[in-house]
Each structure stands twice: as C-alpha cells, then as structure tokens.
C-alpha cells in the first residue's frame, strides 16, 4: 500500500501523525511511505530522517493525494483539500464529523473511506493527556495579571494561600490537569459523575485534591471561590444544556480564568468560543476564557511521539490486512469509520446533522460475524435508526 503523510495546515498546528520510527516499520513491511516535505519539521523530525528509513519526500499535498492509497494527518481535512481526495481513497485523521458538516459533505461526495481518529483509542488518546496537562499550565499562566488574570499565583507563599481550582471531569484529560495543578500547590476540587472514578482519584491524588459529584447545583455552590476552572468534559453534542452558563459567570471573581480543554461550542461551557495559539483568550463578564481547540499543537515533539505510536497499530492493520479484516479485529477502529464510499457510517454525525446512515458493520458486511471485537460506543448520542438495512453475510467468514 502507498501511505501518504500530510503536513498540517491548521493554524497553530505543528504535530505530525507519523515519525520516522513508524515510517521505517511500514517500509520494512513492504509498503511505500510518502512524506510531504517539511511535515515533521516543527515537531523535530526532519525530511532526512524519513529518507534515512526508506520513505520518500513529495513537495506538496497534491502529490500526496495523487499517489497515495491512504492519506494520514492529525487534524481535520481543510476545504483546500476537498477536491484532491480520490474516490475510494482511505483517509485517517481527526475529522470531528458531528461538528463539521461541510467536511462530511466533501468526504461523502468524493466517495472516500474515512476514519475519524479520535474514536479509535482503546486506552484514550495521548492528545487528551497532553491537552489536560498543557491546558492546566495555560490556566496557570493566564491567572497572572500580566496576561489578563487577577494576579493569582497558583501556589501559596508565606502568608498568602494558593489558587482554588475546579476541574470538571476525571477522565484522562481531567486527571492530567489535576496532576499538574495539585503538584503546583493549588487547592483542587475534582468533579465527576462516576462515584467509582472519584473514589479512585481520592486514592491517587494528594490531600490538596478533594472530589465532588458533578452537577450544576454543586458547581454553583463553589464557583464564587474558584480562581481557575478547567473543563475536561466532552459534552454530548445533542444536549442543549450546559454545566456553566453565561449567567453563572456573575458568580465568579473578576480576572478568574476558564480553560475549556474540551473545546465544544455549545458544550459544557456556554460561553466557549474557539481561539488560536496566536490569540488564545477573550473576556466575558470579567472572566478570562482560554479557548484554543488544538492545545497539544503547542508541544508537537512530545505529542507526536506518543500519538504516532498510539495510532500506528491501526494504520499498520489497514495496510497489512485491509479495511474489512482490520475492522473485524478491532472494534475501536470499526466504530471510527465515518464514511464509506458515499455512505455515512458515523452515528453521532447522523443525529446532529439529521442524515441517514448505516452502521460500519453493515457497509463492511460484518453483521453476521460471531467473532467481532465489541467495544463501547464512542458517544452517548444515539440515533433512532429508521432505515432497516438488509443484513449481509459476513465478508470475512
């Protein structure tokens, strides 16, 4: 298979989805790897390193799309790329399909086979861990008066207490954020809806971290004391309510900071707006909001090493075994299938965008397989599926 690695073009994005280590392994297994010139430069991986392991360099994205069977990158497909996609071409990237209708339109129109990478992680994405830890550091930074905050130092000093921090969500992102701010000496309240998760957090975090059940009433009780709020809750896109509303900002101190790591418009933080690394903050009702939607892009070397290693088994399986067999063996890869040759296969996108869809199992001919790797759904958004697709026999049996 010919696999093409694109250079990221999103504003502020410097990661690369494949380092020379993964590229070299694919070459050793008989595949051809094409790297867009400079794709790894900002992450610390120069073209010569890729050439040294047998990959080939192409000067621009047009050549990558023209020559590749599978095209891989970190962030969304941009409009400039739409017309370059070939029919039947495999695309592997973070599509975020439910929130990007035009992108889904293009993938359907071009009859591509696209996987949305954020749904493929069996053990959680390294991007999430980086986002939580780095998002916490950004919050610490913007609490300082020179950066627009109220002048609160995260740690205490003799005679003056440290910051009070609220972390919403105790998943990979929230635990990463909590690890950072608690180590720096803040008084941390960590909220989640899972009592088992909260018990575990009580065991692993130091005494300056207390846990609390997450709901809007509990948030209102403590919001006036908080200097920094870090949202780590991936809010279901079909929900119209919020954990922190615009009216609740009035409860907060002037110059306090909200960092929305989950970066959901209309999500847990009603006042969230996407920002960039160049212009990362805005202020509403005296509260500083940090809204960068690709926080890990600020640490591309570290993130690329971990992220490339985490998604590589999927890329290798597709290249070696083909799409059907790779998806049969790995339910996380299968659930990430977003479009298949003109058919939408992503449930959340179908609900949010009011589109018809078929399950990945249906389009791949796996509905009658007895040995599928069954995994949890990627989101809580559920479709009331109307089209009763005919079950086909298992293509792999």
Low-confidence stretches: 386-397
CATH level 1 class label of the largest domain:
Alpha Beta
CATH architecture descriptor name of the largest domain: 3-Layer(aba) Sandwich
Number of domains: 2
Total strand count, please?
15
Distance between the termini: 24 Å
What would you note in describing this structure?
- It contains 14 helices and 15 strands.
- By secondary structure, the chain is an alpha/beta fold.
- The chain has two domains: 185 residues, 3-Layer(aba) Sandwich (Rossmann fold), CATH 3.40.50.720; 172 residues, Rossmann fold.
- The strands form two sheets. The chain has an eight-stranded mixed beta sheet with strand order 3-2-1-4-5-6-14-15, sandwiched between helices.
- Strand 14 and strand 15 form a beta hairpin.
- Helix 6 runs parallel beside helix 7 and helix 10 crosses helix 11.
- The longest helix is centred in the last third of the chain and has 22 residues.
- The radius of gyration is 22 Å and the shape is globular.
- The C terminus is likely disordered.
Label this structure with key terms:
397 residues, Rossmann fold, 2 domains, seven-stranded mixed β-sheet
Summarize the structure.
The chain is α/β, with parallel strands linked by helices and 397 residues long. The protein is built from 14 helices and 15 strands. The strands form 2 sheets. An 8-stranded mixed β-sheet has the order 3-2-1-4-5-6-14-15, sandwiched between helices. Strands 9-8-7-10-11-13-12 form a 7-stranded mixed β-sheet, covered by helices on one side.
Topology:
Layout: E1 2-5, H1 20-28, E2 32-36, H2 47-52, E3 56-58, H3 61-67, E4 70-72, H4 79-82, E5 90-93, H5 101-109, E6 113-116, H6 126-142, E7 164-168, H7 172-183, E8 187-192, H8 195-204, E9 209-213, H9 216-223, E10 228-231, E11 257-260, E12 281-284, E13 287-290, H10 300-321, H11 323-329, H12 331-335, E14 337-340, E15 343-344, H13 347-352, H14 360-364
Parallel strand pairs: 1-2, 1-4, 2-3, 4-5, 5-6, 7-8, 7-10, 8-9, 10-11, 11-13
Antiparallel strand pairs: 6-14, 12-13, 14-15
């Amino acid at each position: 298979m010919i696999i093409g690695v694109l250079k990221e073009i999103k504003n502020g994005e410097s990661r690369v989805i494949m380092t020379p280590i993964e590229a070299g392994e694919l070459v050793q297994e008989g595949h051809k790897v094409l790297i867009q010139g400079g794709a790894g430069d900002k992450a610390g991986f120069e073209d010569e390193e890729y050439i040294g392991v047998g990959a080939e360099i192409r000067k621009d994205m047009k050549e990558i799309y023209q020559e590749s069977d599978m095209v891989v990158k970190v962030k969304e497909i941009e409009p400039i790329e739409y017309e370059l996609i070939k029919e039947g071409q495999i695309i592997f990237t973070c599509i975020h399909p439910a929130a990007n209708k035009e992108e889904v339109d293009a993938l359907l129109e071009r009859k591509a086979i696209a996987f949305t990478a954020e749904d493929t992680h069996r053990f959680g994405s390294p991007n999430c861990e980086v986002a939580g830890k780095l998002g916490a550091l950004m919050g610490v930074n913007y609490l300082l008066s020179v950066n627009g905050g109220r002048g609160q130092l995260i740690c205490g000093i003799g005679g003056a207490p440290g910051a009070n921090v609220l972390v919403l969500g105790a998943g990979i992102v929230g635990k990463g954020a909590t690890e950072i701010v608690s180590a720096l000496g803040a008084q941390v309240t960590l909220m989640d809806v899972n009592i088992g998760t909260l018990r575990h957090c009580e065991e692993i975090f130091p005494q300056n971290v207390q846990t609390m059940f997450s709901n809007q009433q509990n948030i209102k009780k403590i919001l006036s004391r908080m200097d920094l709020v870090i949202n780590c809750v991936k809010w279901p896109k079909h929900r119209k309510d919020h954990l922190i509303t615009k009216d609740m900002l009035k409860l907060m101190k002037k110059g306090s900071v909200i960092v929305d790591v989950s970066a959901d418009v209309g999500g847990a933080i009603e006042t969230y707006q996407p920002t960039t690394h160049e212009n990362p903050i805005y202020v509403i009702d005296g509260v500083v909001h940090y809204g960068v939607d690709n926080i890990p892009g600020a640490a591309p070397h570290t993130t690329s090493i971990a992220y490339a290693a985490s998604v590589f088994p999927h890329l290798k399986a597709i290249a070696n075994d083909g799409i059907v067999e790779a998806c049969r063996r790995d339910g996380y890869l299968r659930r990430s299938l977003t479009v298949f040759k003109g058919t939408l296969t992503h449930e959340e996108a179908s609900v949010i965008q009011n589109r018809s869809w078929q399950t990945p199992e249906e389009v791949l001919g796996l509905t009658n397989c007895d040995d599928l790797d069954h995994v949890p759904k990627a989101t809580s958004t559920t479709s009331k599926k109307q089209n009763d697709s005919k079950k086909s026999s298992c293509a792999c049996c």
